TrEMBL record:
Belongs to the FliD family. One of its GO terms (cellular component) is bacterial-type flagellum hook. It is found in: Secreted; Bacterial flagellum. Homopentamer. The keyword Repressor does not apply. GO terms for biological process: bacterial-type flagellum-dependent cell motility; cell adhesion. Residues 232-454 form the Flagellar hook-associated protein 2 C-terminal domain. This is Flagellar hook-associated protein 2. Its main location: secreted. Required for morphogenesis and for the elongation of the flagellar filament by facilitating polymerization of the flagellin monomers at the tip of growing filament. Forms a capping structure, which prevents flagellin subunits (transported through the central channel of the flagellum) from leaking out without polymerization at the distal end. Residues 10-106 form the Flagellar hook-associated protein 2 N-terminal domain. Pfam families: Flagellin_IN, FliD_C, FliD_N. Keywords: Bacterial flagellum, Cell projection, Cilium, Coiled coil, Flagellum, Secreted.
């Protein structure tokens, strides 16, 4: 807004007069600012509501998983030689498990004294053929080569380092190579990439690799050109007197729903216990109750009224906030049919307290989870085409949180009000600029007029003083 000097003809304080008048004219701006602050506070409050509702909806995810309600837990005795895990398909039971041997990979090495191993040896063009098959420890030991599992490396190089690198660069070979420096020479070590008797392999070479000849059923010593370090073998496990063998140290098909991870061979059997595990279901239920109570607390804080102080909260009296509170209470407390003997939360020990929060009676809840007739898993997770409690509640929360839901509609309305307010402010500022110009023009004209009258008054005074005195 334009600023002019005070009146020079009359001594009027034009700036002060205009400022005081404009302060009165600008009062609507203060009202608008207060309104906008209120709108922004409500937007922030509904942002909090949306956040806790989203967290509440997320807490329902655990209740949608029926497996949590039929979960089992595997417990293994000390120094067992294995660890175990179980799924919901495992039956509660106890087993005596003994790990007789682990599944291993085949490992062979070139001799330190062979012409192939010293650093001065030269490797050039040649072929290395790997033939996989099944090794039987015996006695007598045997190797059954599989003609369908043969791979060949076409090699061209000059050192055993080149040969090592060529083997490791070809993932189709099924073996890896490394070099061990024993102090006098470098030895090549070949290791199969898989465990089990069926992952045994033989070697044969041509050209500069002709010395690389080996069969798993051969009896070798460290003086041979290629000798055995470790044979490929299956894991052998005794379960309640039944011996099983597997090509891996992870056994997941011996006991239904149970995975054994073998770590070492043992001389005695260890106890494996499979029992019902309700901790996952109770954890999901506890998360749901906590999220609901936090949502309720947030809504109460935003809509409450302090009678002692006579102060209201941001959303006190807001119809949308009240509607959300009522809907949540009704949804959580309502009955759900078509899913067995449980229809309400209260039937499994989850009830409303006097302050509206939820609380679980652990004794009743444990009894309900242990009672198959209660069908707690179906109540929460649903069955076939019938939605359970978790999905039903989550769908209704989608209605609140969705783009066309109650919350978005309310916040869209607030944003529209803020926009309209911004437009009003813009128009008012434009009008105030014109008003200030008009005030300044009027006071300037008044100043000019007063200055002119002052000059006339001075002139007349002087003329009257100069008139001859009468008598």
């Amino acid at each position: 807004m334009a600023i002019t000097a005070n009146g020079i003809g009359s001594g009027l304080d034009i700036n002060s007069l205009v400022s005081q008048l404009m302060a009165l004219e600008q009062r609507p701006l203060t009202t608008m600012a207060t309104k906008e602050a209120s709108y922004q506070a409500k937007l922030s409050a509904f942002g909090q509501v949306k956040s806790v509702l989203s967290a509440f909806q997320t807490s329902l995810t655990g209740l949608k998983d029926a497996a949590k309600f039929t979960a089992t837990k595997a417990t293994v005795g000390s120094d067992a030689g294995f660890t175990a895990s179980s799924t919901s398909t495992a039956a509660a039971s106890s087993y005596a498990v003994k790990v007789e041997q682990l599944a291993t990979t085949q490992r062979i090495a070139t001799s330190a004294s062979s012409t192939f191993a010293p650093d001065t040896s030269v490797v050039s063009t040649g072929e290395l053929t790997i033939n996989f098959g099944t090794y039987t420890a015996g006695p007598p030991a045997g190797f059954a080569a599989d003609t369908d599992r043969v791979v060949t490396l076409e090699f061209s190089g000059s050192t055993i380092e080149d040969l090592r690198d060529a083997i490791n660069a070809d993932s189709t070979l099924g073996i890896k190579a490394s070099l061990v420096d024993n102090g006098t020479a470098k030895q090549l070590v070949f290791t199969g990439t898989g465990t089990g008797a069926e992952k045994a392999f033989s070697l044969s070479g041509t050209g500069s690799l002709a010395a690389l000849q080996y069969s798993p059923d051969a009896t070798t010593t460290s003086s041979d050109t290629v000798y055995n370090l470790q044979s490929a073998q299956d894991a052998i496990v005794d379960i309640d007197g039944i011996r099983i063998s597997r090509g891996s140290n992870t056994v997941n098909d011996a006991i239904e729903g149970v995975t054994l991870s073998l770590t070492k061979a043992t001389s005695t059997a260890a106890n494996l216990t499979i029992a019902d595990d309700r901790s996952q279901a109770k954890g999901a239920i506890d998360s749901f109750i906590k999220a609901y109570n936090e949502t309720l607390s947030t809504l109460k804080n935003l809509t409450g009224y302090d009678a002692e102080k006579g102060t209201s909260s941001t959303l006190t009296g807001d119809a949308t906030a009240r509607g959300i509170q009522n809907q949540l209470r009704n949804l959580v407390g309502s009955a759900l049919g078509g899913l067995g003997n449980t229809t309400r939360l209260s039937e499994i020990g989850i009830t409303f307290q006097r302050d509206g929060t939820l609380k679980a009676d652990s004794t009743k809840l444990d009894a309900a989870l242990a009672d198959p007739a209660r069908n707690v898993a179906e109540f929460f997770a649903g069955k076939d085409d019938v939605k359970g409690f978790a999905d039903t509640l989550s769908t209704r929360l989608d209605d609140l949180l969705g783009t066309s839901g109650m919350l978005n509609s309310r916040t869209d309305g607030i944003n529209a009000s803020i926009k309209a307010l911004d437009k009003q402010r813009e128009n008012l500022l434009t009008r105030l600029e014109s008003v200030e110009k008009r005030y300044r023009a009027q006071f300037t004209a008044l100043d000019t007029m007063i200055a002119s009258m002052s000059q006339t008054s001075t002139y007349l005074t002087q003329q009257l003083a100069n008139l001859p005195k009468i008598g």
